[in-house]
Amino acid sequence: MEQLRLIRTGYNYADFSTSISPAIELALEKRQAASAVVLNVFRGGSFTSGFLDDPEKALDLEYCRQEGIVVRRRQNAGGAIWGPDGGALIVLYVDTRLPWVPMKTIKDAFGITLNRLAEAVRELFEVEAVYRPLNDVEVEGRKLIPTSARLEKEILTMRLLVNVVPTDPNILKKAIITPPEKTQDKKIKDPGARFTCLEIEAGRKISHSELLTLTSKTVEKIFGTTVQLVPGELSDLEKTYAAEYQKEYTSEAWFYANSERMRFKEIPPDAAKCEGRHKAPAGLIRVTLLITKNRIHDLIITGDFHPAPYQVLREMENVVRGKECNLDIVENEIQQIFDRSDVEIAGTEVKDFVGAFSMAFRDIEK
Hints:
about 375 residues; alpha+beta; BirA Bifunctional Protein, domain 2; Enolase-like, domain 1; 2 domains; 13 helices; 16 strands
């Protein structure tokens, strides 16, 4: 029988995301540890910003500072996420080369994992949870379980953030910056009202043991009865990696690495800045451009979607940097990246990126 390590932890969302989670990923990527599933129940509330986003455009950092809310930039993609005290994170860390792992791509990972998770929620809590592509489990349009996926060096990380307890909607409304494009396809537009939780939907308190049952049932539905969950803990090596990541990922250099303040340090005096946003099924795509003499002097592509490999966005930036502000040229360059066999940007098409560039070019014409 195949085995998965079952590790239970109790960190806040930000600390788990910037120490424990990347440590396990690194150990698996180096083939120094076995595949695992982690159930982490949060102690204290915190926000994380996605790896591919600019935290200054994703969250009202001043509001978070005033309220004493911890904010970190995590190693995984997706949008800004709130992890409340008492919430839970179920994370799968699996080697996709293993024959018993059915998820080989990001798209497969979302479809398989979230459909099985929604089934488990319905059975255990009698809550009408459904999978909403690309990466949410919802109840009548209200987000119950936001998720993210990472696929690097054939190691898949599936992060399932279970909203267990009620959250003050004012925190979400005031902290999360929501461009209008992001909610254009949502039933509920108010960011504070778009979230729900298990305790509200089930009409009762949810115990830690029930969250453990949810974890085990979801794993069984994904992998079948031939995969056994074996209680375990972090290895000494994973603990060492976690301490190293905690130091690196709490630094300002890491937090602001994808922001304009870091990426646009030297702006030519004749440069004009413009921005374009486009909502793809996978999430929001944002391009920020510095234009000189009708050419793209520099740019930042950010978003809350889930590409593999992660550096593909930097590669997109590199191929259009210096090019003329011409949509046909931009489309041709991005198409070549999409055509590569090693690239997967589930829930997006070339036209989605071109749409963001188109809006940016219009912005500069105003």
